[in-house]
Amino acid sequence: MNDLAEWARRYVDMVPHVSTLTRLAGDARSVVECGVRGGVSTWAILDGLPPDGRLLSIDIDPDVPEMVPPRVRDDPRWTLLTADDRKVEWPVADLVFIDTSHEHQHTADELLAAWRAGARTIALHDYMLPAVEDAVCVFVRRCGWSLEVEPSEWGLAVLRCP
C-alpha cells in the first residue's frame, strides 16, 4: 500500500486530520507519538518529517508492527517502543501526538510528559470525548497554552506553547 489517503480510509477517524499532522511534522525535527493503532497518524507524521527528523512511537499493543504498512515499518526515521507511555522516559520532542486511552488521568499524564519533553506543539486526537477535552482544558488553563480545535466527529486539538 503506497497511498496514505487509501490507508487512512481503513481508519476513518483519522481521515480529516492527516494533512494537519503532516503539516505539524514539517516544523519538527523530533516527534513523540503516543498510540499507533494502524499507523495512519504515523505515516502522516513521517510524510511531513524532515529527512533528518526522528519519530518515536509508543504503543502498548505488541501487535503494532504487524498492523502498520511497510511505508511506516521501513522508514529509518521511525522507532517503535512497545510500552505504556506513562512508564517510560520520553526524549526531547518538538511535537507530541497523543491518541491512546482517552481517559482523563491518562491524558493528563501524557500532557505533563509532553511538557517535560519540551514539546512546543501537542496534538490530541479524539478531543470531542469529554475526558480528553477536560484534561486538555485543565492543561491549557494551568500552562497558558493556546488551543485550536480542528472539527470532525472526533476532533483534533492542537496546543501551542506560548
Name some characteristics of this structure.
162 residues, alpha/beta, Rossmann fold, 7-stranded mixed β-sheet, 7 helices, 36% helix, globular
Question: What does this entry show, briefly?
Answer:
By secondary structure, the chain is of the alpha/beta class. The chain is 36% helix and 22% strand.
Structure description:
- By secondary structure, this protein is an alpha/beta fold.
- It has a single domain (4-160), classed as Vaccinia Virus protein VP39 (Rossmann fold, 3-Layer(aba) Sandwich), CATH 3.40.50.
- It contains 7 helices and 7 strands, in the order H-H-E-H-E-H-H-E-E-H-E-H-E-E.
- Strands 3-2-1-4-5-7-6 form a 7-stranded mixed β-sheet, sandwiched between helices.
- Strand 1, helix 3 and strand 2 (54-59) form a beta-alpha-beta unit.
- The longest helix is centred in the C-terminal third of the chain and has 14 residues, at 130-143.
- The chain is globular.
- The model has no long low-confidence stretch (mean pLDDT 96).
How many individual domains? 1
The helicity comes to 25-40%
Radius of gyration: 14 Å
Query: What would CATH call the class?
Result: Alpha Beta
Strand content: 15-25%
What is the CATH third-level topology name? Rossmann fold
Distance between the termini: 39 Å
Contiguous low-pLDDT stretches (5 residues minimum) are none
Q: Can you count the helices? A: 7
What is the CATH homologous superfamily assignment? Answer: Vaccinia Virus protein VP39
Strand order of the largest sheet: 3-2-1-4-5-7-6
Shape: globular
Number of strands: 7
How much is the average pLDDT? 96
- Largest beta sheet, briefly? 7 strands, mixed
From the coordinates shown, what is the CATH architecture? 3-Layer(aba) Sandwich
Q: What structural class should be given to the helix and strand makeup?
A: alpha/beta
What series of H and E elements makes up the topology? HHEHEHHEEHEHEE
